[in-house]
């Protein structure tokens, strides 16, 4: 199976969905624990939620493989995103619930991690770089939106309930300050619809946002970590809730439209 799905667009925007994939090769699945096979930490239905991207003219890249195979939003050398904080590895061995992903003796060794990096991680990132370069060539700049979701409560990573809209800019360095402020203001305005937000809170942007967000070079990257309680059932079988999605989609669309308006000025 190809490591990603890609659809081109005409706007100066690439939307990346690195954790939406659910494919696990049979040889890997055979070594995984039964709880891990439920793929609980997937960014469930994010591609379905962002069903308006074609209307905006965005290019879209979405992973096909599960983050349990390899995490496309981690440094390929394993450098921590948040030094000192609990986090999962390039090829995770424990889930967000701190349960083992592999049966005893089944975790990948260094050689297997390298193979997964070459066959799944690298092609995704090569395509991201290629598309950002093409967008910059056409428009003079490129926007990268890294779309994620997560359970509203994950004690391993944060206390209490996560805000609904979690915007990350690497602490203000992965996009132009004016762009960050405009998108943040749009997120703040969603409070009138019942959605809470944070900017560079617990989630400041992962490897993708930090690696490609180089505003001095014309590429501006933002990550949105969306609380799953806003659009789906957070417990198995992780069903999509169209009634909830219909409420939050306009907010997501406004965030991206704000970014595109800034880019076109």
Core attributes:
Aminopeptidase, 32% helix, 15% strand, alpha/beta, seven-stranded mixed beta sheet, 265 residues
Written account of the structure:
It is a single chain. The chain is an alpha/beta fold. Helices cover 32% and strands 15% of the residues. It has one domain: Aminopeptidase, CATH 3.40.630. The chain contains 7 helices and 7 strands. The chain has a 7-stranded mixed sheet, sandwiched between helices. Helix 5 runs antiparallel to helix 7.
In angstroms, what is the radius of gyration? 18 Å
From N to C, what is the helix and strand string?
A: EEHHHEHEEHEHEH
CATH superfamily: Zn-dependent exopeptidases
CATH class: Alpha Beta
From the 3D structure, determine the CATH topology. Answer: Aminopeptidase
Biggest β-sheet, characterized?
Answer: 7 strands, mixed
What is the share of helical residues? 25-40%
């Amino acid at each position: 199976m190809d490591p990603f799905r890609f659809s081109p667009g005409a706007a100066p925007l690439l939307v990346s969905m690195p954790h939406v994939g659910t494919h696990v090769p049979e040889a890997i699945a055979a070594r995984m624990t039964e709880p891990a096979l439920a793929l609980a930490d997937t960014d469930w239905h994010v591609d379905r939620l962002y069903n308006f991207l074609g209307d905006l003219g965005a290019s879209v890249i979405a992973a096909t493989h599960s983050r349990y195979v390899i995490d496309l939003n981690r440094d390929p050398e394993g450098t921590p995103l948040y030094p000192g904080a609990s986090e999962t590895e390039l090829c995770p061995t424990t889930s967000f619930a701190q349960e083992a992903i592999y049966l005893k003796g089944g975790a990948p060794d260094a050689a297997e991690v390298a193979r997964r990096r070459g066959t799944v991680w690298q092609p995704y990132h090569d395509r991201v770089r290629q598309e950002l370069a093409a967008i910059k060539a056409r428009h003079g700049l490129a926007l990268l939106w890294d779309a994620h979701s997560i359970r509203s409560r994950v004690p391993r990573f944060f206390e209490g309930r996560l805000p609904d809209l979690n915007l990350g800019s690497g602490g203000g360095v992965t996009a132009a300050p004016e762009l960050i402020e405009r998108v943040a203001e749009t997120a703040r305005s969603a409070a009138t619809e019942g959605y809470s937000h944070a900017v560079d809170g617990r989630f400041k942007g992962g490897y993708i946002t930090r690696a490609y967000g180089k505003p001095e070079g014309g590429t501006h990257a933002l990550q949105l970590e969306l609380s799953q309680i806003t659009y789906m059932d957070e417990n198995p079988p992780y069903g999509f809730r169209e009634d909830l999605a219909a409420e939050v989609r306009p907010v997501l669309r406004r965030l991206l439209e704000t970014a595109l308006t800034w880019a076109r000025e």
